[in-house]
Amino acid sequence: METWVWLTAYVVGFGLLQVLLYRYFRRGDPSPETTEGRVDRTGGPGPQAPDSQGVVHCDHCGTDNEAHRMVRYCRSCTESLR
Fold it and tell me: Which residues, at least 6 apart from 49, have a Cβ–Cβ distance to it below 8 Å?
């Protein structure tokens, strides 16, 4: 009988620990901070072509990204570069 008491206490304690950890990490604002000076994408010129140094500038945040055919998303804001 003593084994079942310890097992029940362990399961309940472990569940309580999981709930407390979940609430600790989920508190606050879950949305990311906005960046100052974002570019308005409505009516923009479409996909950027790489410049002479092999760099593509993100229309969304202005970050320089490698101009490679396998790179489809900005490394900073993860918006599509195409």
Answer: 56
